[in-house]
Amino acid sequence: MTFLGMPTTAPRGVGNLRGDESFPAAAHKALQDEQLRRNLGHATTTIRRKSGAVIGELPDWQELREAGSTLKANTMARLPELLDQLEANVTAAGGVVHWAADANEANQIVTDLVKATGHDRVIKVKSMATQEIGLNEALEASGITAVETDLAELIVQLGNDKPSHILVPAIHRNRAEIREIFLREMPGVDPALTDEPAELAGAARRYLRETFLSTKVAVSGANFAVAETGTLAVLESEGNGRMCLTLPETLITVMGIEKLVPTWRDLEVFLQLLPRASTGERMNPYTSMWTGVTPGDGPQNFHLVLLDNGRTAVLADEVGRQALHCIRCSACLNVCPVYERTGGHAYGSVYPGPIGAILSPQLTGVEDNASLPYASSLCGACFDACPVKIDIPSILVHLRNEVPHPRAEKAAFGAVAYTMDHPALYTRAQHAAKLSRHAKKLPPPLNGWTASRDLPEPPSETFRDWWAKR
Ligand code: SF4
Question: Residue ranges of the Lactate utilization protein B C-terminal domain (predicted)?
Fold first, then answer.
């Protein structure tokens, strides 16, 4: 039994876990955007093909998935002791560990740490946790500028936009739009910039190099933390993470408490699963690991902020806690027929797609994201694709049961339950249903159910009638 204190959900009014409108309303708007659907269709098909090819090379892929799933379940069952172990080992290696109960605390801790350095600019390597808590906005409110260094994150930041995919945050932008954003927002950009991908990347590289070399504080997330050694790991593809993690004087890492693995050896499972499931690569291009502080090498001040922000509440739910096993590979997004059509913004949270549909409502409390558990056809493609075997469809159904239901729906199901519990009433209801044999639609207020499907036709003879005759 794991219990880390009073489970509370992520606070309102801070961070990026709640949208301004429900999923159906936001999805309806997104579906009008043909450019978005073209971009999404192209990107998800390409990633699926690449990923499928490299996964097919491994004869033991299913065993690896099983190992990943078991390791995560084991970690969640021992989370308190493993977090203590991590804290002791990070501290012994010269780092400082901070505990943040929620987004407000985490933002305050990071802001105070940056202020204490005397600098007013930080560089960032892409981090879902800091987007979740709205760290950039909190830093800005204190006069500190945060510069995203992942190319897609930079595009999103300069465009004053929100990420729409875990792995490809600017998936909704085409290169003409990116050129326009760079020309408008990037300091020192060449006005003759074209929309050739190599030129766009070159412009970003020039701007970022200058920023890397002149910024003394970095903020990162973490893909994994090893409890037995106190080692943190960041996996990325552009080398910007390596720059952030090695060049500045001070490094501040914000990490969700679920990112732990117990031992160094456990990493071998996840370092095989993650690149194949996410970018479709055999090996991750840049895997940076560090343990505390090393004199004369890399940042000389290291702070680790351990973030709860609703995770303890997720852990307290025996069915839903599997969502904490997620390694943010985005494979579930790339196979989801709903995500492929709506894109990420419709989910209203920094976590889009199937994982967002189960994680966001649990972090915020289901009443604050009540439409997300329904943002799925329950086809099960996400479960098959997930490298750590998270049973997303079962969690969706579980959460649908927890969502506050409309009174009319509750009354209708109450009436059905009562009828089925009373044989005479049930027989009469069956005979009444026969009268509606040729009706294709239900009358109001139930007509929503038959708006896009026909009413199934009741049989001409019920089983009871058939049985009685014999
Ligand atoms: S739920 Fe599974 S497939 Fe989806 S992002 Fe997380 S680890 Fe990847």
Answer: 401-470
**Residue 71 structure tokens:** 């390791």
Atom of ligand 1 nearest to the CA of 355: 1
Q: What does the pLDDT read at residue 1? A: 45
Spatial contact of 221 and 129, defined as CB atoms under 8 Å apart:
yes
User: What Cα–Cα distance (Å) separates residue 33 from each residue in 11, 238, 342, 343, 352?
Assistant: 32, 30, 9, 10, 18
Strands 231-236 and 250-256: unpaired
CA distance 89 to 229: 6
The SS3 call for residue 16 is coil
Residue 447 pLDDT exceeds 90: no
Which of 43-47, 378-382, 452-456 tops mean pLDDT?
Answer: 378-382
Could you tell me the two tokens for 436? Answer: 């509606």
Give tens-digit pLDDT for 320-371: 999 999 999 999 999 999 999 999 999 999 999 999 999 999 999 999 999 9
Helices 353-364 and 392-402, packing angle to 10 deg? 40
**Can you give the pTM of this predicted structure?**
0.90
C-alpha 402/C-alpha 396 separation (Å) is 10
Q: Where are the alpha helices (H) located in 168-307, listed in sequence order?
A: 175-185, 197-214, 240-246, 267-278
CA atoms within 13 A on the CB side of 118: 1
Ligand 1 pocket test: pick from 329, 349, 396 the residue with the most ligand atoms within 8 Å of its Cβ.
329
C-beta 128 within 6 A of ligand 1: no
Q: What is the DSSP string of 28-48?
A: HHHTT-HHHHHHHHHHHHHHH
Max Cα separation, the chain? Answer: 91
**Ligand 1: which atom is nearest the Cα of residue 385?**
3
Q: Is the CB of 274 under 6 A from ligand 1?
A: no
Q: Is the Cβ atom of 330 under 6 angstroms away from ligand 1? A: yes
Task: Identify whether the C-beta of residue 41 lies closer than 8 Å to the C-beta of residue 342.
Answer: no
Residue located nearest, by CA, to atom 2 of ligand 1: 386
**Per-residue pLDDT tens digits for 94-150:** 999 999 999 999 999 999 999 999 999 999 998 999 999 999 999 999 999 999 999
Q: Measured from the CB, is residue 385 less than 6 Å from ligand 1?
A: yes
Long-range own/partner contacts, residues 170-177 (CB < 8 A, 24 or more apart): 171/39, 171/40, 171/43, 171/343, 171/344, 172/36, 172/39, 172/40, 172/343, 172/344, 172/345, 173/39, 174/35, 174/39, 175/200
Residue 2: pLDDT above 70?
Answer: no
The span from the CA of 290 to the CA of 313, in Å, is: 30
pLDDT in tens, 392-434: 999 999 999 999 888 888 888 899 999 999 999 998 988 888 7
